[in-house]
Amino acid sequence: MSTFGTLFRVTTYGESHCQSVGCIVDGVPPGLALSESDVQVQLRRRRPGQSNLTTPRNEEDLVHLQSGTENGVTLGTPIGLFVQNKDQRPHDYSETDLYPRPSHADWTYLEKYGIKASSGGGRSSARETIGRVAAGAIAEKYLHDAYGIEIVAFVSSVGKIHVPSSPPSTSPQTSGPADDADEAEDVLSQEFRDLLHTITREQVDQHTTRCPHPETAEKWSRSSTRLPIRIIRAKEASDSIGGTITCVIRGAPTGLGEPVFDKFEATLAHAMLSIPATKSFEIGSGFKGTEVPGSKHNDMFVKKEGGGLTTVTNWSGGIQGGITNGQDIYFRVGFKSPATISQAQATAQYDGTPGFLAARGRHDPCVVPRAVPIVEAMAAIVLLDQILIQNSRKAAATLLPRITTLPPSMVIPPRD
Amino acid sequence: MSTFGTLFRVTTYGESHCQSVGCIVDGVPPGLALSESDVQVQLRRRRPGQSNLTTPRNEEDLVHLQSGTENGVTLGTPIGLFVQNKDQRPHDYSETDLYPRPSHADWTYLEKYGIKASSGGGRSSARETIGRVAAGAIAEKYLHDAYGIEIVAFVSSVGKIHVPSSPPSTSPQTSGPADDADEAEDVLSQEFRDLLHTITREQVDQHTTRCPHPETAEKWSRSSTRLPIRIIRAKEASDSIGGTITCVIRGAPTGLGEPVFDKFEATLAHAMLSIPATKSFEIGSGFKGTEVPGSKHNDMFVKKEGGGLTTVTNWSGGIQGGITNGQDIYFRVGFKSPATISQAQATAQYDGTPGFLAARGRHDPCVVPRAVPIVEAMAAIVLLDQILIQNSRKAAATLLPRITTLPPSMVIPPRD
Amino acid sequence: MSTFGTLFRVTTYGESHCQSVGCIVDGVPPGLALSESDVQVQLRRRRPGQSNLTTPRNEEDLVHLQSGTENGVTLGTPIGLFVQNKDQRPHDYSETDLYPRPSHADWTYLEKYGIKASSGGGRSSARETIGRVAAGAIAEKYLHDAYGIEIVAFVSSVGKIHVPSSPPSTSPQTSGPADDADEAEDVLSQEFRDLLHTITREQVDQHTTRCPHPETAEKWSRSSTRLPIRIIRAKEASDSIGGTITCVIRGAPTGLGEPVFDKFEATLAHAMLSIPATKSFEIGSGFKGTEVPGSKHNDMFVKKEGGGLTTVTNWSGGIQGGITNGQDIYFRVGFKSPATISQAQATAQYDGTPGFLAARGRHDPCVVPRAVPIVEAMAAIVLLDQILIQNSRKAAATLLPRITTLPPSMVIPPRD
Amino acid sequence: MSTFGTLFRVTTYGESHCQSVGCIVDGVPPGLALSESDVQVQLRRRRPGQSNLTTPRNEEDLVHLQSGTENGVTLGTPIGLFVQNKDQRPHDYSETDLYPRPSHADWTYLEKYGIKASSGGGRSSARETIGRVAAGAIAEKYLHDAYGIEIVAFVSSVGKIHVPSSPPSTSPQTSGPADDADEAEDVLSQEFRDLLHTITREQVDQHTTRCPHPETAEKWSRSSTRLPIRIIRAKEASDSIGGTITCVIRGAPTGLGEPVFDKFEATLAHAMLSIPATKSFEIGSGFKGTEVPGSKHNDMFVKKEGGGLTTVTNWSGGIQGGITNGQDIYFRVGFKSPATISQAQATAQYDGTPGFLAARGRHDPCVVPRAVPIVEAMAAIVLLDQILIQNSRKAAATLLPRITTLPPSMVIPPRD
């Protein structure tokens, strides 16, 4: 349904052409400095009309906080907020009255509810994500102020053009069945790992595609306009193209994630796959990690400065056994090519009559640049919820009298 | 935590070396014929010791239903069940007392709880999945009896050896930057799509690796033993190897999935990523679908025999806008290489002292064959829960007086 | 937290002096005719300033539906709605800055959150209930249209003045220890049972106190003003007085309530005790039923016209074993006397300094007349949620093949 | 359904005549010393057959912990536990095959599920409460060890015989309309308040009826047998009688309870009304508090030794605005007279045929003495869950930088 989270809980509402879209954010820690501008900055990054790469429907998307703060500080009570839908034009989509858009939600919504919003995508519209982004911005504010946590997402591929992440091949693909050989190289190149460890939102936003890798951005760009050619090409072909977003969370504490069903990566995958148009998710080494032997894939432990352990490598993506280990958490989300395109498609009407549908109106040829703050928002929501739950456990354990008779194998006391 | 689901709800308990492992299954539809053998069949498929490919720890894993049925029929009340842990040997893992296993849950559990089970993997053990498989078998029984739904998972890759799924390349990879070209071919080959549409569990179980593709199984096998050489090789190297499991659900009704946060694929991803050792998930075209233009990726509609619509292709994997469309639902889950290996690894003790750890005991060099029924179980649990929720909505809508004044764009009445 | 319900789910926001108060209503059945006036009618009944019995703060409380409907019909998607807070005067409660109001939430909110709204009651204000009433009105619209269910609440006591509900005493209280005697009389008088069975909202609203019993209303009233003297007296004394509300649900189907923790009366009690100022709840015979022997208290079965069974009496209040039996569901909720009074009270400041607090401003001397629609709303929310859950189970059971071999004791087939 | 709680979560299973009854307790704080005897002590108090007042069905009810502890300490993972059903006699209740017991759950279970357990009360049996009591004992162990919290319940009435709680009447009920007079006296007598503040389980258990008030216990007793005559009388009449249980929680921290829907008393009422046979709940002054003017009912604040505030009186029952204030939390729960009695009742068969039912077998004439540990258990479960949630918030708030610019009315800093 439209509520997500246990202790930090977001509930959203709103279709594409109704009065407003918004959400209620419950469980916000009290005493947090928060103003509308903290939310607006991420809504602005989500907005369409930022360049000629995205749909020119020019909404201002100004957020209005309704409750839960006073004098710029959170009260701990629910924060209601909304953004007006300014673009409520009368219904003019005559062809989509007859045709469900292929691979869009028109037909499945009708199957599910027996009724559907008459204009636009209804609840499956991208405007639905405004509530998520706003809630995520609130979560992020807390994560930053209390923990110094940084969450940065960026576009890691458009179509077949990927930010390079594999290490240079040491063994040229020569004789012998390659699929029978052990994977000798690392999962990710040192350069990509450095990118994950240092990337900032400012760097991400320097290019309109939100790709922080100079060579790839260059490859995507025409020298004069510096626009990504892959997206331009899709647009010119009245077509669309998908892509992937990689996201990194830096500074998360250890111990987050609730076995066995709410492992950190499980709730993260839930959150990411709930974003419109997503179809895939991988964390750490992901699918590639299925091909690397354990001896190569395992992240060896080493003493950490300041106490405790850390790992030498981080193919696990910061999570082991469903629980964070203090390393960078990184994951990748795949967005399919947008379903609404303006070239004619041979499909069928709602009643089965075959025909051709060419979507009118203006549509994003590629959504991944705009989806960057949405991925960040959902990551922040998951992270804060898991922190609140784990904090509760730690506080509870701290209050108990210490049991001194446990065997070392259960508690691993300091040894000298 | 250890509960999953809304109306069909599973709660599990149990560590690797405690008295028993089990679960409580709540929300089972009343009036379902159910006996222990319905559950046992899937537990048997999950069991280790089925061949020399998996750990020889020979448990019988007999399930004991405790409640919720009478005369072989469900009462609608919770079903408690358990399987004894017969292999409760005294703690003898002296080295894992000193060393957290790299990429295993030993250290993160300690960070999370401040205490951990002294022997074995505790709650992160594969034995935890017994409860899931049992609950899934109950869900499946209902899905089969009420809807004729079939759920079949199989091993689609071990290491780098994949069941071929790409169509034959029509354009030989020649001139021009390949990453700049539109993806002209189909996402999946016709052969693989046929496999998805027809595969049965009997076929899957014909090979010990649960790979139903003859050529790949052949490739994996030594002629004499018919054992998969990739796994044998890992075992002989005291190493381990990962793989992927592909699963298909056939016969699911339309309309399942709860926007916006509990989209069908979102809850499915949640369920799959909660299985130990999983790191990645994709549904339908998945990551490959990010590279295919919308015009090629869209599943065109066509009239369905018997009424309604269906799609010509099914790159969406049976889900559009987070809601099932009646097509086959197929998805792929990646399992990393098992962390516990018996070759020596240069790592650190809990207190940071560097050293070498070589895991004693017997460990699976590859878990994917055994994980097949676990994937099926979690799929069944998600599916039944979503069916119950959607049934509720449909029943509610049916009771309302029909509104006859709605514009066609909202309801799409039959047209002639 | 601020979300209530499983399939029909309400989330509210809003303090007394913030921008607006409102809610998101998720899980509304699709295809329901719904307009703002359906909601407004109950908000109007909740409003203060309806007479000189309640606080004259004259809000208009106009509801604004934001989403989830189109052309006056629900889409099945969440309904966002809000009511402006028009009375956002600058903070002028100087004394309540120093003094936490005795028996109000000022001090406990500060203990809980470490911070509190500076003016008015914050989230503990009666304005919080606007979201509940709006959500309840939506639930009621469905319950009425789909089931013909009627929910009517009324004031059954103010202070010590109760609508008479006991039967006339047959045995004059004479010799012998009365507490040792069996309760010979009925739990409720025939007159009161008739009232429960026939009372309408129109009858309830005929008197400003929402007491539908003519004699009691008369007793409460001054001949000239027809105002309830008990409330007038409290007002004139700068004091306050509590009361009880009795509510009846007529027409609910059998089978509602989810054992063992979400029995119908358990969720109903949860809902009622979440209303501000409530301290007690009883269903059916309630506390009086603890004094009546089983032989007298049991509701005997009898054949029902049209099939099935019903009960001769209904001391159970329509619920047996936590599950509705088709009879009228009736219950009573106790509201303590309002905490905010304008007479001086000897209490302490936040820092412990003793002193006197006399609340300024205008305050309800008695909240029960205004609380009538709040009780109805929470009852409707509980009822619809339970109906949706039970409908899901029934739909699931219906799809199973009928098992013909069950013993009669499990299914009770028709006998001739 | 059969799961209760958010962070401390109990899921139960089991019918009266199945293999076993039990539960899974999730969210137990790690590092808690816990053994089976901690649980057994409360199960023993719940057992029937403790005296000739209760049913002689002599179960031993030995609990078997299955998981979640090692070396007598909790691991933080779920605790599975069960108690064998030893009394699984073949079905012999021929009359209850034909007749649904009046005011029992037989008929409503059949209406709900379309099927029912053939023998005994199925899931509505008192044996269902074993899981609750076991889970509550675990919660209590934590509450005791970490907070020193004490929870004590006792029987406060049987039939019409009540432990006296009203203060002595100062004004003899003479002239004038009593219902028009302000309530001049206190809500509870000083003696009863002292009882609440000091009562121990040892004192409660000194009498078989678990009534700690000597005069009342005396009144209930025959000199020779010291058995409560009211219960004996019911038994001899083949009848049954209800009663009330009062419970006090001492030592709970301030700030517990989650507005607006999960106020402390709301979740407590939910928990209590989920216990079989309960029909009413009141906290603090309860229904009597509706009759007392605010000036009399308000609990005035006073400086607390050691800092902070407390209240002079405690008519609120330790909760204000839905949040605990550190005072004793006390509440009362009403249990109706048991439905199963052995005298003949004129009722109808399942098919509507009129006839007489006299329940065979042995049945409790009064359940309240045995229900004492059940009330304590549910109170402990609610309390621990709320503590865990509030601890999470406090921990979250503590990590934020302190905002120094807030007006005093929001934070009330110390004043001199």
How are the elements arranged and paired?
4 copies of one chain form a homotetramer.
Chain A lengths: L2 E2 L4 E5 L6 E7 L9 H11 L16 E3 L3 E2 L2 E2 L4 E6 L9 H5 L7 H8 L15 H19 L2 E9 L2 E2 L27 H9 L2 H4 L9 H7 L8 H8 L6 E8 L13 H10 L4 E6 L10 H4 L3 E3 L5 E3 L7 E2 L2 E2 L4 E7 L9 E4 L5 E4 L10 H31 L9 H4 L5
Helix pairs in contact in A: 1-4, 1-11, 4-11, 9-11
EC number (chains A, B, C, D): 4.2.3.5
GO cellular component, one term (chains A, B, C, D): cytosol
Pathway (chains A, B, C, D): Metabolic intermediate biosynthesis; chorismate biosynthesis; chorismate from D-erythrose 4-phosphate and phosphoenolpyruvate: step 7/7
Structure report:
Chains A, B, C, D: Homotetramer. 4 copies of one chain form a homotetramer. Chain A has 416 residues and is an alpha+beta fold. Chain A has one domain: Chorismate synthase AroC (Chorismate synthase, AroC fold, 4-Layer Sandwich), CATH 3.60.150. Chain A is built from 12 helices and 18 strands. Chain A has a 5-stranded antiparallel sheet, with helices on one face. A 5-stranded antiparallel sheet of chain A has the order 9-8-10-16-11. A two-stranded antiparallel sheet of chain A has the order 5-6. In chain A, helix 9 packs antiparallel against helix 11. About 2% of the residues of chain A have low confidence. The interface between B and C is large, with 37 and 37 residues. Strand 11 of chain C pairs antiparallel with strand 11 of chain D.
Helix content of chain A: 25-40%
Question: Using CB atoms under 8 Å apart, which protein chain pair has the greatest interface?
Answer: C-D, 145 and 146 residues
Q: How many domains make up the coordinates of chain A?
A: 1
Q: Given the structure, what is the number of helices of chain A? A: 12
CATH topology of chain A: Chorismate synthase, AroC fold
The oligomeric state is homotetramer
Computed Rg of chain A: 23 Å
Fourth-tier CATH superfamily name of chain A: Chorismate synthase AroC
Strand content of chain A: 15-25%
Give the neighbour order of strands across the main sheet of chain A. Answer: 1-2-3-7-4
Average predicted local confidence, pLDDT of chain A: 89
Please state the overall shape of chain A, judged from the principal axes of the Cα atoms.
globular
Low-confidence stretches of chain A: 172-180
Q: In CATH's first tier, which class of chain A applies?
A: Alpha Beta
Number of strands of chain A: 18
